[in-house]
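Pipeline run #58 for the internal structure catalog. This entry was flagged by the ingest filter as a single-chain record with no existing model, so it goes straight to prediction. Upstream metadata was stripped on purpose; only the residue string is passed forward. Reviewer on rotation: M.T. Logging verbosity set to normal.
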Amino acid sequence: MADTLRRLTNTSSYSVLQDKLESWHKDYHVISCDQNLNRCCELIELTAKIQGQLFAILNLTAAEGGHYAGVDTLKTRLLPWLGTCFSMARPSVTDNTSLQLMQDSVEKDMRIRELSASHESDMLQMDTQLCSTRLQLDSVRAELVNAQKQLDETKSKSATTLLATEDEILQLKADLRSAHEQVEIYKRKLETLDYDYERQIRLLKDEVSTLSMEKAMLQERLVRSRSPSPLPRPGSSPLRSESPTRAQLTNSSRYARLVSRFSDLYAVERLEAQTMLRRHIVDLEMVQKIIFIAVVESFKTAKLAYRQFKLRVRKTLSTSHFGPETLEDAAVDYMVRNLDLYDVQSSVNDVINAMNVNPRISFPPEVDFALITSLIRETCRVAFAMQTLDPQLDLAFASDGELYSDSKYRRSYDSEFTAPLVMYHVWPALVEGDAVVVKGEAVTRRGALWSRSRSSVSPVRSRSLSPTRSLAFNSKRSLSPERLTASRL
């Protein structure tokens, strides 16, 4: 009995009945008559269920009391109540009402079966959805595992890429430094060009005026040649005109231009070559020696090329030359007008060959002296043009260990200013005969040794040429540039 009573208490049937009554009371005037009747029947059914449970508890309680326990209570309370209920309820219940109740009961059973079937179908559908959800969950887990693997691979690739990026950054920084150096070089070159611009304009104006004078003189000569002239006496030489040639008229302007260009070689091209060589040679002294020897060898080669070119021009003009000027002046004038016929590339190759066998300088075997081709080419052109001047310009004699002269050189910034001897030369001096036109630069230090005379033959360097030095020696030349003395040139 106690278990049945506990179940009845736990179900809270009376609370549910009270809630339904209150809900029906609130909606009584809103809902229809059929709905009111249905709610009333529902409450009666619920009350009957509760009464059935109470009767079961009553039966169990009476059984626990034995044959005679509780008889008075049943006689005095239950039996009279039952008699009163049946006597009152019997006239109010008709056959139609009983049939209606039975029909409602059947309808409710049908609804319960329908609800059960729909519930089962919903459960099946939910099971299907649960299976599909589980499959989707498994696929999502597999995708998550793949994504984790890809993330790990991306991390490893990112680490490798970061290392490569650092190397690229270092390379870019080095390129940026070299670009800054190039910019500084071009800035200095631009400043030099700006400085020389007005001077070049003045020189060109002077040359134009000179050419105008020459034109006037030529027109005068043409007028005189057309006028009748007395016949020359037998045995007398023809008259020679004293009019100057183009080379003589432009000598001063070309002189100033070439001296200025020689100074530009020191200020611009020399620094560019020095910057390029410092990328391969750490020793600044060796770099300066290489540049100095390149300039000296360029002058030697250009002077030799000038002599050979002049001989060819004289030989060509000798058969057809006639005029007031001499054959020598005509040859020089032709060379001044046609400086572009000078084969400067051949001279550059000869200079590089001479530097390869020079024992005073060394160079890494993986590169060659072609790195400073630009400096050598411009120096050869300037030196060749200087040979057309009257008088000619040349480099001053220089040797390591010579006595320092303030009239020929200026000391470099790292020199010992009390040292009397030249350790090595940075840039040669430009001279006109014995007069110094442009000073050179030298390094003076104590302990500098006297070098041997230039006329002595230097031993050939024993190191073999690098495979990358593709320029071969010209064995057919009668004299190499380094063996030509100043007197022969």
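catalog note: The longest strand covers residues 422-427.
catalog note: Residues 95-226 form the longest helix (132 residues).
status: ready for reviewer M.T.
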